[in-house]
Design brief:
Elements lengths: L8 H12 L3 H14 L4 E7 L5 E6 L39 H7 L2 E7 L6 E7 L2 E8 L4 E7 L6 H5 L4 H18 L4 E6 L2 E5 L6 H9 L1 H5 L1 E8 L2 E8 L11 E5 L2 E3 L2 H11 L11 E6 L5 E2 L10 E2 L2 H19 L10
Parallel strand pairs: 1-7, 11-13
Antiparallel strand pairs: 1-2, 2-6, 3-4, 3-6, 4-5, 7-8, 9-10, 10-13, 11-12, 14-15
Helix pairs in contact: 1-3, 2-5, 5-6, 8-9
The structure holds adenosine-5'-diphosphate and magnesium ion (MG).
GO molecular function, one term: ATP-dependent DNA damage sensor activity
GO cellular component, one term: mismatch repair complex
Protein name: DNA mismatch repair protein MutL
């Protein structure tokens, strides 16, 4: 029998990284969430080769102070949670302090950052979890992070990556969801040198929907604004006459985060029952706002499923919000698109 030994740090890091970083889209999700948490007003995401070769996120957020830059890449290092009491009311997208450590363990990373108080920024370069260089650098306020050669040191992971087109589409899906969840942020997505998406960041959900999901979809929507108990539902649902051939156009956000909720989906379909033909499906972009105490957010970072303390209350709120909207407003004229 083999002796039992504690894993060398480098091996343990690669295993832990695998939990957070599955493919380029998971890296992009973490980097965009960090930029949003940093209070950015504008983000640019660039990828090449589906994100496998190159991912760059530039934000105009808070930046990281020079003395904290290296610490940001350590596992469980975070500025967002300090005590276990903080875990009870998380107001940021990230809080585990694992993303940068994980990404750095399986790629080559360069980060340039400056806070508003600093005259000079900082540049750091890492590969395979090790710091290669760190020093001062001139840069605007905010952060740019470049991730190259994902999984260069974990060939087994590399083999599971799909074609660049498929990985690129998964990245786009992440960018779209974050754009829809934050209409106040302008997001630009550039793929292999071509601009694929650019949201205005004017704070209007309909503008983001228009930019991300297209003019035709945005035109066929009805506005929703409904509250039941402590649950508030806002956003848009598709007119029954414009019902779709699949469920691809159903987006639910909970307190600003894209989520999957069987309860919300079931309530949506139930509300359309009798208004659309069999084999046709509703579409929606619905934001569900709930007191944080009624949601279990401390779930796995890569998973989007949520649990509600009161599933029934959420079902009812979504059901009546949608039902009332489509019942009374189906004959109203098309929405006026901003811009
Ligand atoms: P988490 O987001 O869970 O705190 P991360 O590993 O993603 O953990 O990031 C570690 C820390 O690095 C963050 O808590 C934050 O202080 C800092 N950070 C990361 N990205 C940015 C960014 N784009 N702008 C400002 N600070 C950042
Ligand atoms: Mg993070």
């Amino acid at each position: 029998m083999n002796r039992i030994q504690v894993l060398p740090k480098a091996v343990a890091e690669k295993i832990a990284a695998g939990e957070v970083v599955e493919r380029p889209a998971s890296v992009v999700k973490e980097l965009l969430e960090n930029a949003i948490d940093a209070g950015a007003a504008a983000l640019t995401l660039e990828i090449q080769n589906g994100g496998v070769r190159f991912i760059r996120v530039t934000d105009d957020g808070s930046g990281i102070p020079a003395e904290d830059v290296a610490t940001a890449f350590l596992r469980h290092a975070t500025s967002k949670v300090h005590t276990d009491g903080d875990l009870e009311a998380i107001g940021t997208l990230g809080f585990r302090g694992e993303a940068l450590a994980s990404v750095t363990a399986v790629s080559k990373v360069e980060l340039i950052t400056r806070t508003a108080d600093e005259l000079e920024g900082t540049r750091i370069a890492l590969a395979g979890g090790e710091v290669l260089e760190q020093g001062p650098a001139g840069c605007p306020q905010g952060t740019t992070i470049l991730v190259r050669d994902l999984f260069y040191n974990t060939p087994a992971r590399m083999k599971f990556l799909k074609k660049d087109v498929t990985e690129g589409n998964a990245v786009r899906a992440v960018a779209e969801r974050l754009a829809l969840s934050h209409p106040e942020i302008s997001l630009k997505f550039i793929k292999d040198g071509r601009e694929e998406l650019h949201t205005p960041g004017d704070g209007k959900l309909l503008s983001a929907v228009h930019a991300v999901l297209g003019r035709d979809f945005a035109r066929d929507l009805l506005p929703v604004d409904y509250a039941l108990g402590s649950v508030r539902i806002t956003g848009f649902v598709l007119k029954p006459v414009s019902a779709r051939a699949n469920r691809n156009m159903q987006f639910f956000f909970l307190n600003g985060r894209l989520v999957k909720s069987r309860t919300a989906m079931a309530a949506l379909e139930q509300a359309y029952k009798g208004s659309i033909m069999v084999g046709r499906f509703p579409g929606c972009v619905l934001h569900i706002a709930l007191p944080p105490a009624l949601v279990d957010v401390n779930v796995h970072p890569a998973k989007t499923e949520v649990r509600f303390a009161d599933e029934h209350a959420v079902f009812e709120a979504v059901y009546y919000a949608v039902k009332n909207t489509i019942a009374e407003k189906d004959t109203r004229p098309a929405l006026r698109l901003p811009g």
